[in-house]
């Protein structure tokens, strides 16, 4: 396929690859052929005929669509001949027969391929006086996407995306001829984690998203490239801002990571930035009430607290949404507070607020993987959290690799969404309800056939906080032994890898609870973390924080943890701060600032430096650039370092793999069995999502998944039930999932109502018979 | 309102005929049409479950082809050809007589759910023009009067099965050639009565 061919376009000799599509080969050589339906990441369909070009054939010149014609040796192509121009005019005239002239009120106007190409290639005047086609409009095809069928030019980009890329074809062409329209099946909305991509690739204003409709005109938007921090994949995004308000996030085509696509969470989780619930002032607790104080008073308070206590015990609970520069500052600050206790490296005082984090496979015996390796390996082996819900775009990359013939092996009970793609799904027969392997892996013949002496990329991580590391060790040792292995440590939360890189040693909340219990309980900093709500140890941490002398919370919203704080410092969020983040390939990527700091918010590092300086510590950074250049200088590679200057492009390979030693010290959670399998869903009750009106309702459904066997065991016949544990009971919808092993009930951990449940305790499930039962809740 | 056991059994037999389940979509849609006289949404859901594609993908195909009916049809679907060969053999008179007798306009079904009338493009019987189809069973060499007789006969007899050969003998004129398949057993619903779809019944 990589053989070069030479062909001629408009008299110019060009080079392309054998089998490459003409439109793509021309694009690569800088010749733009107009198109509507063709998209680099989708299969060609030849739907719109806009890309017609003239080629020489044995029977003379012929018009062919360049999106379905492959380049071949000595092909002669005309893209601007009179015939081609006439064809383009004709195609546009046909497309415009039914396209409404509502550009003045259309969100797409100004960035609309149909508008632009009509100006560039169109006939200039219309001969049609007939009535245009009419449909009811706009119709909601999902909670966040609206469809205007009159504007649709039937390019099939959205339907192909949902079929080929995301694999949930819930929109299709309905009817025929003049009545052809894109639509959903009645009562089957376009409920996809990736529906926003169809809005972005729509070449007209037919698909629009609720969050952006009628908010701005494209020419008023200020734009900057950045990196999404919704998961650890690091999708390249373009932030669109008007009048200091974030209005839209678009996916940027970064060959190495997201390839243009975004999950709906990454795309629409931004309205919280301007929520009226944002923390904008410093709050200090004075006699049970919070009072607003200014920054110098706040710093003074912290300084006095630390100075008053002799050799105070100070701990940090950090979240995953900080930038590398912020982690770097946290690390400096935390180390500077070490008086004598923390001098050795393994006496860390920084704890990471994600129960899924464990010691992982970072040592030199493991080769770390990049997303490209997924495409180039023979097989992918997954045993991790639910990929589709926690790393949605990685799901797309896996799907793409599988489509191209890479074999997929899935272990465990959490990745049931991958089952239909998997060549080998090792669920209940191989993996016990406690996530232990029941048989020796070398005994599984099908696995042998797929992985032995092959190139294997594994995505490995804890499927649930309760999974023991032993089982993962067994798998990775086996893979290491029989195959040529590359490893993805699967930690799904935002900048987990940045924290791992830049903090000398990270411990888990398990360690926090045991170590803190016996300490003086002086001061705790929580930085962008809400362990009270999101952790397995939530209630324990709540008690510990209540017993603490002084709790300082740095956050963007009030939450269950800030409620326990004595001092709340409001921080800047995504788009309001500049910095770098490290994705799960250890690729360092840039986050850019485009919004001003709201209210009296400051970045996390600014607070910490101010506190450090007030305490007379020798930590001096004037700007995030200072932090960045010192941080970058730690990298030992000889190529360009991941400084801001080197990271201007949407993608950057320079940052891959810091040679710095990675030091994670996290114990397994001491619990042998789980009765409820709690998994994180894409949409939930995070404060950012609840405060983004366009997507807040997406995480509201309460449901559990279980197999038919388990359902029968509880004698449930309807699809609603009441889940009771101790004194708390919640009403849930039932979803059948026969891939789950018997007696295991899967529940979302990040939904309202579920946070009270303890996955290790027994529960009861009762059928809910009528609406009366519901009102109890 | 899911499918009855017998129909599901037929569906399974059809699915087995194809290397990929989704390829059975066409014949399964005829099974659905045989059930209700049109492709109901319930049947779409049923088929989607049987062959593992989404409902809207089934609907996409079902709404594309005109022989898959999206609205309920009557017991007898009358399809009169309006294409060129029939037109020059005065099919418009046949069309008018059928329309007058039934009181229906194009694509309309009467209140009793007895007749559905449609005028259609070429039905492949140009040699015997003008032609009509009753539940896709073709009658050639029709006259306006014979067409009315045919409708009257259907109204009085209400046959469970319509068979092309029988109708041809009773109401047809010149037949182009003996084109019908040998084992044609007639149609019991607006579905072509081929064995493949297994919607035909044994001739009494």
Order of helices and strands of chain B: HHHHEHHEEEEHH
Q: Which strand order spans the largest sheet of chain A, edge to edge or round the barrel?
A: 15-14-26-25-24-16-17
The average pLDDT of chain A is 91
Q: How many domains of chain A?
A: 5
What structural class do the secondary elements of chain A suggest?
alpha/beta
Average pLDDT value of chain B?
90
**Rg of Cα set of chain A:** 28 Å
Binned, the helix content of chain A reads 10-25%
Percent strand of chain A = 15-25%
Major sheet of chain B: 5 strands, mixed
Task: Let me know the number of strands of chain A.
Answer: 35
Strand content of chain B: 5-15%
Which secondary-structure class do the elements of chain B indicate?
Answer: alpha+beta
How would you describe the shape of chain A? globular
Describe this structure in words.
The complex is a heterodimer of chains A (about 775) and B (about 200). With about 775 residues, chain A is an alpha/beta fold. Chain A has 5 domains: about 5-95, Ubiquitin-like (UB roll); about 130-270, Alpha-Beta Plaits (2-Layer Sandwich), CATH 3.30.70.20; about 280-355 and about 495-665, Rossmann fold (3-Layer(aba) Sandwich); about 370-490, Dimethylsulfoxide Reductase, domain 2 (3-Layer(aba) Sandwich); about 675-775, Barwin-like endoglucanases (Beta Barrel). Chain A is about 25% helix and about 20% strand. Chain A contains 23 helices and 35 strands. A 7-stranded mixed sheet of chain A has the order 15-14-26-25-24-16-17, with helices on both faces. Chain A starts with a strand and ends with a helix. Chain B has about 200 residues and is of the alpha+beta class. Chain B folds into 2 domains: about 5-65, Arc Repressor Mutant, subunit A (Orthogonal Bundle), CATH 1.10.10; about 75-170, Glutaredoxin, CATH 3.40.30. In chain B, about 40% of the residues lie in helices and about 10% in strands. Chain B is built from 8 helices and 5 strands. Chain B has helices at about 5-15, 25-35, 40-50, 55-65, 85-90, 90-100, 145-155, 165-170; strands at about 75-80, 110, 115-120, 130-135, 135-140. In chain B, strand 4 (about 130-135) and strand 5 form a beta hairpin. In chain B, helix 1 packs antiparallel against helix 2 (about 25-35) and helix 2 packs antiparallel against helix 3. The two termini of chain B are about 30 Å apart.
């Amino acid at each position: 396929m990589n053989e070069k061919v030479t062909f001629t376009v408009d008299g110019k000799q060009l080079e392309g690859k054998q089998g490459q599509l003409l439109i793509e080969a021309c694009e690569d050589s800088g010749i733009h052929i107009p198109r509507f339906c063709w998209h680099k990441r989708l299969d060609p369909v030849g739907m719109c005929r806009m890309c017609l070009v003239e080629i020489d054939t044995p029977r003379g010149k012929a018009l062919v669509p360049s999106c379905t014609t492959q380049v071949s040796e000595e092909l002669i192509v005309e893209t601007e001949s009179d015939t081609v121009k006439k064809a383009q005019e004709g195609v546009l005239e046909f497309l415009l027969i039914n396209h409404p002239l509502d550009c003045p009120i259309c969100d797409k106007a100004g960035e609309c391929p149909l508008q632009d190409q009509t100006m560039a290639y169109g006939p200039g005047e219309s001969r049609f006086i007939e009535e245009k086609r009419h449909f009811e409009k706009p119709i909601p095809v999902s909670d966040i996407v609206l469809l205007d069928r009159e504007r649709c030019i039937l390019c099939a980009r959205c339907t192909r995306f949902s079929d080929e890329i995301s694999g949930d074809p819930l929109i299709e062409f309905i009817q025929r001829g003049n009545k052809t329209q894109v639509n959903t099946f009645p009562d089957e909305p376009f409920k996809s984690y990736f529906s926003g991509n169809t809005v972005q690739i729509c070449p007209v204003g037919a698909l629009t998203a609720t969050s952006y409709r009628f908010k701005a005109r494209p020419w008023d938007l200020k734009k900057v490239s950045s990196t999404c921090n919704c998961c650890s994949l690091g999708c390249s995004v373009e932030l669109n801002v008007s009048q200091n308000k974030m209005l839209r996030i678009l996916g940027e085509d970064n060959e190495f990571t997201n390839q243009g696509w975004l999950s709906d969470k990454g795309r629409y989780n931004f309205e919280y930035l301007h929520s009226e619930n944002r923390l904008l002032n410093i709050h200090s607790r004075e006699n049970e009430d919070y009072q607003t104080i200014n920054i110098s008073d706040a710093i003074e308070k912290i300084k006095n607290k630390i100075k008053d206590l002799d050799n105070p015990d100070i701990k940090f609970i950090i979240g995953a949404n900080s930038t590398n520069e912020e982690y770097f500052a946290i690390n400096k600050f935390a180390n500077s507070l070490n008086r004598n206790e923390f001098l050795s490296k393994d006496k860390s005082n920084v704890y990471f607020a994600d129960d899924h984090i464990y010691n992982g496979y970072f040592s030199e015996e493991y080769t770390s993987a990049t997303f490209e390796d997924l495409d180039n390996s023979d097989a992918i082996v997954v045993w991790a959290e639910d990929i589709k819900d926690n790393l949605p775009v990685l799901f797309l990359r896996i799907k793409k690799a599988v489509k191209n013939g890479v074999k997929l092996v899935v272990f465990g009970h959490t990745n049931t969404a991958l089952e239909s793609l998997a060549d080998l799904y090792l669920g209940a027969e191989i993996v016990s309800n406690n996530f232990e392997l029941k048989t020796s892996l070398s005994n599984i013949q099908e696995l042998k056939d797929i992985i032995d002496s092959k190139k294997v990329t594994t995505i490995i991580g804890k499927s649930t906080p309760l999974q023991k590391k032993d089982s993962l060790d067994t798998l990775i040792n086996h893979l290491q032994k029989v195959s040529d292995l590359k490893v993805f440590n699967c930690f799904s939360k935002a900048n987990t890898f940045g924290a791992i890189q830049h903090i000398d040693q990270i411990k888990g909340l398990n360690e926090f609870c045991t170590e803190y219990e016996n300490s003086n309980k002086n001061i705790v900093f929580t930085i962008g973390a809400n362990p009270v709500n999101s952790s397995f140890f939530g209630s324990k941490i709540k008690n510990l924080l209540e017993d603490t002398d002084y709790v300082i919370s740095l956050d963007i919203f009030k939450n269950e943890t800030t409620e326990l704080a004595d001092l709340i410092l409001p921080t800047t969020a995504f788009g309001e701060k500049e910095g770098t983040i490290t994705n799960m390939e250890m690729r360092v990527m840039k986050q850019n600032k485009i919004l001003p700091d709201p209210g009296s918010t400051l970045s996390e590092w600014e607070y910490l430096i101010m506190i450090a300086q007030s305490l007379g510590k020798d930590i001096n950074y004037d700007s995030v650039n200072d932090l960045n250049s010192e941080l970058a200088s730690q990298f030992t590679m000889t190529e360009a370092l991941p400084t801001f200057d080197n990271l201007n492009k949407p993608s950057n390979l320079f940052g891959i793999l810091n040679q710095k030693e990675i030091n994670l010290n996290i114990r397994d959670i001491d619990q042998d069995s789980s009765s409820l399998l709690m998994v994180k869903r894409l949409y939930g009750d995070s404060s950012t999502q609840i405060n983004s009106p366009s997507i807040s309702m997406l995480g509201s459904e309460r449901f559990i998944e279980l197999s038919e066997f388990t359902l029968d065991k509880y004698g449930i016949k309807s699809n609603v039930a009441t889940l009771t544990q101790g004194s708390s009971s919640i009403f849930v919808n039932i979803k059948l999932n026969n891939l789950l092993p018997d007696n295991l009930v899967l529940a979302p951990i990040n939904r309202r109502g579920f946070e009270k449940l303890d996955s290790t305790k027994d529960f009861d499930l009762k059928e809910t018979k009528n609406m009366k039962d519901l009102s109890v809740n | 309102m899911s499918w009855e056991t017998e129909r599901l059994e037929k569906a399974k037999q059809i699915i087995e005929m194809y290397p990929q389940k989704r390829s059975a979509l066409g014949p399964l849609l005829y099974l659905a049409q045989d059930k209700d006289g049109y492709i109901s949404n319930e049947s779409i859901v049923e088929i989607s479950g049987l062959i593992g594609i989404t409902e809207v993908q089934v609907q996409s195909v079902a709404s594309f082809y005109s022989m898959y009916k999206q609205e309920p049809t009557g017991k007898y679907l009358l399809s009169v050809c309006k294409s060129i060969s029939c037109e020059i053999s005065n099919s418009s008179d046949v069309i008018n007589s059928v329309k007058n007798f039934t009181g229906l306009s194009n694509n309309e079904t009467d209140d009793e759910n007895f007749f559905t009338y449609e005028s259609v493009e070429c039905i492949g019987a140009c040699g015997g023009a003008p032609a009509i189809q009753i539940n896709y069973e073709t009658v050639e060499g029709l006259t306006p009067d014979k067409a009315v007789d045919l409708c009257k006969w259907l109204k009085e007899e209400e046959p469970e099965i319509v068979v092309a050969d029988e109708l041809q003998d009773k109401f047809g004129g010149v037949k182009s050639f003996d084109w019908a398949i040998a084992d044609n057993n007639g149609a019991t619903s607006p579905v072509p009565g081929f064995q493949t779809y297994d919607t035909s019944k044994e001739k009494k």
